[in-house]
Design goal:
There is one protein chain. With about 350 residues, this protein is α+β, with helices and mostly antiparallel strands. The chain has 14 helices and 10 strands.
């Protein structure tokens, strides 16, 4: 447990480091933040904080730099969140309203706004396919072995893939299409899968050839859907241009990390376990080459069910008191907009 004075000094060090990116000395803390405390006292507290693992000294003559553990303590016990400025709230609401009706465009706009406002990289994962409401399915004959499946969600998202099997005429495919659309519209994709499996064992499926074939093709079509989420990353250049990246090999690590989208998706999806905004620091980023960076992330929801996630990636010294409310507000706006997804 830190005393009130120790918390004040650690908080001041982090504020100064966030602002300048430079190691922080005791004199600047005593002069700028803790005017009633002598530099010698500040030095002693900084030494104690270093022993606790909250600070480190890059070299003997330098000031101190906060460690990820120091930032974590700051986030949990010291930081006071700022209210998101009304101007930024208004800008988010105005821009998001323009893209209503096209979910992909809505999410792309959300990612762009997060990057622009935070001046960092932003990431948004599209809603999980299983959670979207099914509107219609179409089968299009390509040749004697291939059929194109077109799935359309109520929100207008379109998923295409090809299934392979026996030759079926377009006229017969149209009949299967009409049956499935009449029977399963307005269910989620997962609910449709469950219903198809249940219906296959029904008496109707056993004695009605059209029903059996339509159900069979529908199951094949849904099994063939790859539920690999789309991911939008905006503002990578703000990370590449960060003064924290002074070495070329570090830049190479960051470029590779952004290319490893599968791992970024796994990291972001960890925030879906609990509601609210989460902050992942340094090694919590699964050693993807971003040990000096952090992610502020949140899930967004439909009817209290998580359907996707969003986040901001930047240097570990980002202004969390401002970024956390920004991510939380954007998650709320998206959840409200996508309520009928």
């Amino acid at each position: 447990m830190l005393s009130i004075r120790d918390k004040g000094i650690l908080g001041a060090i982090i504020q100064e480091y966030v602002s300048t990116g430079e190691p922080v000395g005791s004199r600047i803390i005593a002069r700028k933040y803790m005017v009633t405390i002598s530099p010698a006292t500040v030095r002693n507290v900084m030494a104690d904080l270093e022993e606790m693992g909250f600070l480190y000294q890059p070299h003997v003559s330098a000031g101190r730099v906060p460690t990820p553990e120091g930032f974590r303590y700051y986030l949990n016990d010291i930081m006071e969140l700022k209210a998101l400025p009304r101007l930024e709230k208004s800008m988010i609401s105005r821009h998001m309203a323009k893209s209503l009706g096209d979910v992909r465009e809505t999410l792309r706009e959300a990612s762009s706004l997060l990057s622009r406002i935070s001046q960092n990289a932003s990431i948004i994962i599209m809603p999980k396919l299983d959670t979207v409401f099914f509107k219609r399915i179409d089968f299009i004959r390509l040749d004697e072995n291939r059929t194109l499946v077109v799935l359309v969600s109520k929100a207008g998202m379109v998923y295409n893939h090809i299934v392979y099997g026996e030759d079926v005429s377009q006229d017969q495919l149209n009949k299967y299409t009409n049956f499935l659309n009449d029977s399963y519209a307005d269910l989620t994709i997962q609910e449709m899968r469950d219903m198809l499996i249940k219906e296959m064992s029904s008496e109707r499926a056993k004695f009605d050839s059209l029903v059996h074939q339509a159900l069979s093709l529908g199951m094949t079509a849904l099994e063939g859907v790859e539920d690999r989420p789309d991911i939008y990353i905006q503002g990578k250049e703000s990370v590449y241009n960060s003064p924290d990246l002074v070495k070329l090999e570090r830049l190479r690590d960051i470029v590779n990390a952004f290319e490893d989208k599968g791992r970024i998706v796994r990291i972001l999806n960890r925030v879906l376990d609990d509601p609210g905004v989460k902050v992942l620091l340094g090694e919590e980023m699964e050693h993807i080459g971003m040990d000096d960076f952090s992610m502020v992330a949140s899930g967004y929801y439909r009817r209290n069910v998580p359907v996707g996630s969003l986040g901001i990636i930047g240097p570990i010294r980002m202004d969390y008191s401002r970024v956390i409310p920004l991510v939380g507000y954007m998650a709320k706006v998206l959840s409200d907009l996508l309520e009928d997804l």
